[in-house]
Write a structure and sequence with these properties.
Elements: H1 3-12, H2 15-20, E1 23-28, E2 31-37, H3 51-67, E3 77-84, E4 93-103, E5 107-115, E6 121-130
Antiparallel strand pairs: 1-2, 2-4, 3-6, 4-5, 5-6
Bound molecules: coenzyme A.
Coenzyme A is lined by residues 44, 48, 50-51, 84-87, 120.
Length: 134
């Protein structure tokens, strides 16, 4: 089994991903797309998606893009910077599109854009991952 297929199988067993109903769409080395239909349990009392949920979905896309650049292992997140540009609401489908933008000896840096079904840009993140220990 190749690395991408191995990671696709891994994604299907992610407990939080299963809880969210997240799906891994287009996936290739250095690039991952993760989508989620917003559930009411993701909302704060104002009827918009809680920012940590958006961050978690961005993180899923980022970490799969990062892991796809390595032959083996998991890349734990070291730092996340995220901007919540527009509120996300119930009934929307949100898609996180992640790309690896730099790889150093010890880290992998990703950029993640979060859109809704109308391609409105809802959030923007940069996420730094650590490479696994050899
Ligand atoms: C924080 C925020 C209000 C700042 O907005 P701003 O910098 O002053 O810019 P604007 O007022 O031009 O709004 C930016 C966008 O958010 C939308 N927006 C702002 N406040 C909104 C509100 N209370 N309800 C719905 N949409 C809102 C605007 O319509 C605009 O979208 P558009 O360009 O598609 O029309 C806006 O960026 C935002 O709502 N971000 C999402 C916050 C969020 O969901 N955080 C996580 C949960 S607390």
């Amino acid at each position: 089994m190749g690395r991408l297929e191995e990671l696709r199988q891994r994604f299907k067993s992610e407990p939080l991903g299963i809880h969210f109903g997240a799906t891994l769409g287009h996936f290739e080395a250095g690039h991952a797309v993760v989508s989620v239909n917003v559930k009411d349990e993701f909302l704060i009392v104002d009827g918009i998606v809680q920012g940590g949920i958006t961050t978690a979905i961005a993180d899923f896309a980022g970490v799969y893009a990062a892991m796809s650049k390595l032959e083996t292992g998991h890349t734990p997140a070291m730092n996340i910077n995220i901007y919540f540009l527009r509120p996300i609401k119930t009934g929307e489908t949100i898609t996180a599109v992640a790309d690896v933008i730099n790889e150093s000896r010890r880290t992998i840096l990703t950029r993640v854009d979060v859109f809704n079904q109308d391609r409105e840009n809802k959030a923007y993140a940069t996420i730094l991952f650590a490479k696994p220990k050899a």
